[in-house]
Amino acid sequence: MRNRILGSLLLVCLSVLSVSASDQSILLTFIPNVQFSPFYVGIDGGYFEEAGFNVTLEHLQEPDVLDLVAVGQANFGIVSGEQVILARAQGRDVVYVFEWFQRYPVGLAYSSALDLSDLSDLSGLKVGIPGRFGASYSGLTTLLHSAGLTEDDIEVVEIGFNAPEVFCLGEIDAAIVYVNNEPLQIRERAQAGDCGAVADVDVVSVASQVDLVSNGMIVSRDLLADEPGAARRMAGALGAALREAIDNPAGAYLTSLNHVDDLPQSADFVAELQAASERQRAFLAANPDRAAIARSRQDLAEALAAQFEAALLTQFNVLLNTIELWEADRLGYSDLASWEAMRETLDLMGYLDGDLGDLADAFTNEFLAGNDG
Amino acid sequence: MKLSLENLAVAFSDPQGGLLPALGPVSLAVGEDEFVCLIGPSGCGKTTLIRVLAGLQAPTSGIALCDGVPIARPMRGFAIMFQEANLMPWRTVLDNIALPLEVAGVPAANRYKTVRALLPLLQLENFDQAYPAELSGGMAQRVALGRVMVQEPQVWLLDEPFGALDALTREKLSLELLQLRSRTTQIIIMVTHNISEAVLLADRVIVLSPRPGRLVADVRVDLPRPRFPEMIYERDFLRLAKRIRASIDEISG
Amino acid sequence: MQESSRTATAKIEKRSLSARGNTLRRLSPLATVLLLLLIWLWISDREIISPILVPPPADVAAAFADALADGSLAAHSFTTLGEMFYGLLLGVGIGLAIGYAIAKAPVLEHVLSPIIVAFQSTPIVAYAPLLIIWFGTGPASKVVTTAVIVFFPTLVNTIAGVRAVSPNLLDVMRSLDAGRWQIFRLLELPAASPVLLAGLKTSSTLAVIGAVVGEFVNPQRGLGYLVTSARNRYDTPLVYVSVLTMTAIALSLYSLVALVEWRCLSWRRRSLN
Lengths: 373, 253, 273
Hints:
The complex is a heterotrimer. By secondary structure, chain A is of the alpha/beta class. In chain A, 48% of the residues lie in helices and 14% in strands. A five-stranded mixed β-sheet of chain A has the order 2-1-3-10-4, sandwiched between helices. In chain A, strands 7-6-8-5-9 form a five-stranded mixed β-sheet, with helices on both faces. The model of chain A is unreliable at 11-21 (pLDDT under 50). Chain B folds into two domains: 30-60 and 155-253, Rossmann fold, CATH 3.40.50.300; 78-152, no CATH class. In chain B, 36% of the residues lie in helices and 25% in strands. Chain B has seven helices and ten strands. In chain B, helix 2 (93-103) packs across helix 3, helix 3 (108-122) crosses helix 4 (137-149) and helix 6 crosses helix 7. The N and C termini of chain B lie far apart (37 Å). Helix content of chain C is 86%, strand content 0%. By secondary structure, chain C is mostly helical. Chain C folds into two domains: 1-54; 59-272, Orthogonal Bundle (MetI-like fold). Chain C has eleven helices and no strands. Chain C is globular. Chains in contact: A-C, B-C. At the B-C interface, strand 6, helix 2 and helix 4 of B face helix 1, helix 7, helix 8 and helix 11 of C.
């Protein structure tokens, strides 16, 4: 009897901690950054509110995001697809409902002087990597495998998240990088003559070789059972916000200024972005096609580059590069092949030892806009 | 061995940066085999004088000499006993008495042999492995006395060695010192507050004035040796004690 | 004298009487551990908290057996222990040296205290990444984080211990014309040893924190790496195994110092009884 009273007390405590219907946390990784601009647009643009959610964003370590969603302490989290596979193999029944990054963000950066058009020429080279963990390591494993190589054919150097520094010191021949970010930094240094003998960098992305499932939104199986409508409304809101960020990067950057402390800005730059954002709204009102919108982004990048110094534009360019990883006709959609490819990579890395079950249970596209029926 | 003080004075600096005279100037000569008691009101610089002789305190002016050599640091052949036993709580009785020998570099076996030979004389035979905290105050002072004796000093500097003890223990230890004295022929300079104790033990009693201490009387004690406690009731003893009391009263009044 | 020997006998009797109480006292931590284990069993048995967060003891035991069998637990523990050992050597050594210097020359305290206080009041996790950059991704940087974290308690205790040395005993040593080294060896070291050993007890548990913080910031090897890697593979039982191993190491080291303390300070026990 006493046991039962204690038990229900604990349960009460836990349920107080868990979230109520309209206040929702979305658990993210990393720190506030312009790459999370779709979520900022979702909040400031009212997309989440319209869907019935009062959203707060929290940044945690990836495994913590996953476990908190798995035990129901939070309903929504953003993790990479590989984490979903690893966690499901260890009994966490989370489901991936929206693929945010359509292209895997990792790639290999190397000096343009080097000819790596055939990836097997990597053999014998020194490759820098943050460490043998996470998306970087999965990306390297996949790249090597697609080139018919293994880790033993190259020299792996663990360098932490210091690729631009170490690369420009000439200590490595190539570096595993996030394709939307570090190549920009290296290129800036190279153009300033600040990168040793390197004049420019080329990048071969993992996505160009294999379609690996990437970052997306997860929910718990319990939420799907109890409140499938919540998952649908959240996926819809995220899809709409993501579309707005893709279509109007100037507006997304301005919104991000409200959420990210150290984004580069100046009065002129903000005024120019506001004007660009207004123009883009008018342009979008005419329902242009995707190719035209992509061109509009390029035009904006060129116009800004002519007006402002590079340092001011770094994070805006990161946003533009990242948009290329998000962009797709059907936002949120992931297919079984990309999940299979990721599982194969994890297998190669020796990371899969639990019982994964059916990979098709790991994700669903049924809550995406257009799947209303 | 001869000691002499020539216009010796010590002053300490006060917090305001001035100088506070503590002792002297004092001039005094102590010959071979003399047992000298220093007596005087509290704070008259008796302890300071002992510390100068021990080489622990440098004089501000004047000089202290031992056989014509200035005392600037602890001298070989000098041993000091403080008001408190000052034993090391982590050392046994045996090791506390052996400390001076250890510092002098005497091998362990030899120093323990020397100390064990002393224990009966100190009446500490059964306490060689005891720690200081397990000893009574009188026993602790005996250990401190042993630490002086083991050095076989030619000059004993005793700074009110029984001052912290109760009256009975104090008397008992003075008598023991008296017995030891009958067997030794070294210089002993002892600070005391107790006139009877001074007269009973010393060859000379030096009376010092209040701060800064100056020599006001130098009384020779011509009582025969060996001496016994009963002597304190004798006429000669009382005469000397009265004379010393008178010089003390003179300077205090 | 008779009176004195009587008090000595009384003290001996009192000592043997308290022996039984000591045995009871020594068993009570064991009872606490057992109680915690029971609560753990009950929580996981009823699934009051999800097994994802609190795995059943049996799973943890199995993970422990696995990690023991394939040698990985021993290898990572050994790495961490090595970092702790050299970190303690470095941190305690420098702490003793600087602490002694400050105790003897108070002017040094004014010169050094801003640096030392700044170092101490800044959380190690905040500048551990810098240490990794300065000292590399190898074990050296973990040795340094350990050294930094154990340095301060050693320093403070050394200063307190050496300053607390009785000036009267210093007079005794000086009157014997003892040299600096003799004063250190025969007086200051034994006089300060109770405080120094108390500091070493604190340092020994902090050493685990230092090494593991280093391994967290730059996971390569060691128990901190094992936690990170198990966490990244969602292997909660192995996380528990790693954490419990750290606890065991910290407790063992603490007990080891306590044992040294017990043997070195027998005089103190006898004096206090």
